[in-house]
Write a structure and sequence with these properties.
By secondary structure, the protein is of the alpha+beta class. The chain has 9 helices and 8 strands. A 3-stranded antiparallel sheet has the order 3-2-5. The longest helix is centred in the middle third of the chain and has 79 residues. The chain is rod-shaped, with a radius of gyration of 62 Å.
Amino acid sequence: MTYFAVALLALALVLLFSVVKIVPQGREMTVERFGKYTRTLSPGISLLTPFVERIGRRMNMMEQVLDVPQQEVITKDNAMVKVDAIVFIQVMDASAAAYRVENLPYAITQLCSTNLRTVVGSMDLDEVLFQRDNINSRLLTVIDAATEPWGVKVNRIEIKDLTPPVDITNAMARQMKAERERRAVITEAEGEKQAAIARAEGAKQSAILQSEGRKEAAFRDAEARERAAEAEAKATAMVSEAIARGDVNAINYFVAQKYVEAFAELARNPTAKTVIVPAEMGSLVGTIAGIGELVGLARDQQQAARPTPPPASRASRGSTVPPTS
């Protein structure tokens, strides 16, 4: 009886584990009845018919990343490039992914490899290097349509690495260097142009300011000459009036002034090594004497024109002012 109880308990445990199935989140399981697919178990606990149903395939329903191996592809212009990619897939129908294709990851990887060769081979090298987004979109459209019967959704395809030949890489490096040198030359030329314009503007402003300065100086010189001419004219008029009144000293003063100015100008001449003094010094002395008389006459006239001081008081009359030493 003891052995029978133990055997019965073991059979009950086997039946329990074969009938009760717990599916984790992000997974799904297919159920087969005598080898035929019947239904799909969702995440949670489920019961199977003992000795009739069993678990067929365990499918991962989360998004998966598949690596497409690197391969050499010949472009449209006969350039050899090395290309690899990654593809993001997600199983949407567990039964289709389980029973319509054998080894789903390998099938999708091979499909991506063949379509990658087709797309890259239909493009020139420059298009391959600079139009990766176009390649990704074309691959995504083709592979998503091809995997739809398998119950798989292709979310993204990205070109991970793209390596051109060594000679093409060197040519691209030289081209980049030449382009940068061209930009540097253009930038330097633009700088020199701006500097030349700034220097020209500075010279223009300097010339304008110098012209304004010369204009102002000429205006002030003309004004000074005008005032000197007015003073000369007034002096001449005064001398003329004195001559008209018969004053000989005015004539002597006027002649002596011109004579002294001419003689001083002759003495200041740097090229003149010898100064000849006129022999008629008596006339010059007489002229100077006439100037002295004219100056004395002018002093007498100024003293006569002064106002008369008021009379002194009685106290002041009686006081005696000592003489100053």
